[in-house]
Amino acid sequence: MRIRTARFAAAAAVSGIMLWGQAQKKETRTQQRDLKFETLEETIDAPKAGKVAVPRSYALVVGVSQYPKLKRDQQLQFTERDADSVYSILISREGGNFRAENVRKLTGAKATLANIKDALENWLPSVTKEDDRVLVYFAGHGFVVGGKVYLAPGDFDPGNPTGTGYSTEALGTAFGSKIKGKWKVMLTDACHSGAAATDTDARVINGRLLDLNRSLFSLTASRDREQSFESPDWGGGHGIFTYYVVKGMEGEADESRDGIVTADELADYVQRNVRQATETRQNPTVGGSFDNNMLLAYIPTRASAGAPPPPKFGALIIEANMDAVEVFVDGKSHGVLKKGQKLQVPGLTPGIHQVKGVRMGYEPDGPREEMVFPGQDTTVTLKMLIPRRRPKAAVDKFDPAVEQYQKSRGPEDYRRAVNDFREILAIDPTYSQAALYLARAYRDLTEYEQAEKHFKKALEIDPDYVEARATYGAMLFDTGNTDEAIRQLVDVLSRDKNHAMSYYVLAQAYRLKEQYDQAIEIALQAVKLTPENAEAHFWLADGLRMKGAYAQAAAEYVQYLRLSHFDSSGLRKAGYYLIGFKGFLSKKRAGTTDVWREMRSMAYFGLCDCERKLNRYDEAIRYCQKALTFDQSDPYTHYVLALSYAHQARTTGDITMLPPARKHFAAMLNINPDLSESELAKKNIQSIDNFLRAQ
């Protein structure tokens, strides 16, 4: 895989020469060396015969918990976690079916007024079309000032509410006249306890949110004079409104059992369950004029011809006998329990549900059938009693098999590893670690279908196996299934907030999706957790470069080069390996040297491009020349090097820079004459030739 993207200069007159460049080259993923490349998964966005057609969809998700300029008792606990849950269900194939690159999430320090305003008034209007579906979710504070309602971004200042809040008038204008789409959805949870000082404030806030624009589906957390509740009791910590929105979009609201959650179904489900759970103290409210059959979620696995369930719902109250027990209901994770803690799983349709508790190293409790009764709570106690015991024959084979796998150099070695781990699984089919290494061996053989099968097997045995899920997500990214990779890695981070590898693979995925702000944010977290990890610095640098922060990007490229500075003979000693790049290479794999060289080439290319944009052409030339010592065949490096020579000629008047500029434009054309920059290179060559003839 190769990601070689630059921001090229526009056409300009250069000392009598016409220097032609391009404002921005869109990145591509191309087959490179021994990497088997697979196209991106098919999207459900396109209508297909016999399948549900989900329109192209865009979303903005905002969650603000901490307000630096508000009082301590006005801070919120779970709104950012709510936003994370909404983001996950929106991009899920068993949920909203939004593409990850079409969902912008603003939480924490990113949820500023400027960013929210830019997303609503610039980004969404620029990308949406008349047949699209558009959703905006906001969880945080709302305030009333002078009779006007303002949503409170993270940098909200009560001393300047009109200047630091986002008014519902602006929100209504954006939805009504700027943002296009046939289905528009607004989900708001803006009247948390402490947000509205009086009943009047709550009434005004909710009333205004419900009447933003009559062409959209608006669902607010509570009605006038009410406030909304959040608690650790709901799924381990959520606002009750968002908890049921997510549950509903997971399929619980699908009363018709056709696999589709409509606006009507979601509204009915959320209203019914929030009222019941709060004993009618909180009543979500629907506003707007909208298509009742508006598709909000599509859950293919739940589609059936069965009769719709009874209209009432029940709940499971789940407890466990030890810490770190993950709870699954009907195959979906509902959080991790501690001993003595109770987990509420409300909003379940009456009837039999499958409940399972899992903990790494123990035999699972379940799946077992538990009956849910309408309007009642059913308590379930999960008991992890039996440590998982491995047959001695399987255990004796496992460590030597792993050691041999780590020493593998080529296909024959990986094929032996496949046989070793298959033998272990034949002895013990529940050996999740053996399933993981079998998946890795197949991955290294580029037999991705078999690899995926056994990654899924490892996760079926141990759903809380974070290492398996992270490795699987990285392989999905490398084989082109970027959306599913993002979902898996987001799942990893929901279980382990300190899983550094997932951060820097996610940084790559978001960078590939051109979501540079998220790529930078995620890469910064990776650098914070593992400051000596070279690749984290590389992807941070690449995101910064694409955002135009050239000086910062250059510093991060230098950090990458410093941290990865060793020759191929030192690979074994350093234990160097790349995760989430070029086939998710394992330690000391034979191809690692090639990847190491390619990464260094890309880092020097990035430095060259940054220095060129900073008008430091001598440095740019030096770095591009260094990049070519690692990879002479990269057309983009030749192109940027040629531009740097030409710019240096313009800046200094030194026409001796023109022949090497021409040479590298020609080299670029010789390597790949089909690039979009090829016509520009031809024009530059002609311009240089004309100038030199005139001289």
Short description:
The protein has 695 residues and is α/β, with parallel strands linked by helices.
Q: State the helix count.
A: 23
Could you give a short account of the major beta sheet? 6 strands, mixed
Which structural class best describes the helix and strand composition? alpha/beta
Q: Based on the structure given, which CATH architecture of the largest domain is correct?
A: 3-Layer(aba) Sandwich
Q: Considering DSSP H and I runs of 4 or more, what fraction of the residues is helical?
A: 40-55%
**Can you list the strand order of the major beta sheet?**
4-3-5-9-10-14
Strand composition percent: 15-25%
Q: How many whole angstroms does the radius of gyration measure?
A: 28 Å
Dominant shape: globular
Low-confidence stretches: 4-16, 22-50, 192-200, 206-214, 567-593
Explained architecture:
By secondary structure, the protein is α/β, with parallel strands linked by helices. It is 45% helix and 16% strand. It is built from 23 helices and 22 strands. The strands form 7 sheets. Strands 4-3-5-9-10-14 form a 6-stranded mixed β-sheet, with helices on both faces. Strands 18-17-20-21 form a 4-stranded antiparallel β-sheet, with no helix packed on it. Strand 9 (183-189), helix 5 and strand 10 (217-220) form a beta-alpha-beta unit. It has 4 domains: 12-33 and 592-694, Serine Threonine Protein Phosphatase 5, Tetratricopeptide repeat (Alpha Horseshoe), CATH 1.25.40; 57-302, Rossmann fold (3-Layer(aba) Sandwich); 314-382, Sandwich (Immunoglobulin-like); 392-574, Alpha Horseshoe (Serine Threonine Protein Phosphatase 5, Tetratricopeptide repeat). The longest helix has 22 residues, at 592-613. The chain is globular and about 90 Å long. Helix 10 (432-444) runs antiparallel to helix 11 (448-461), helix 12 (466-478) packs parallel to helix 14 (500-512) and helix 16 runs antiparallel to helix 17 (550-563).
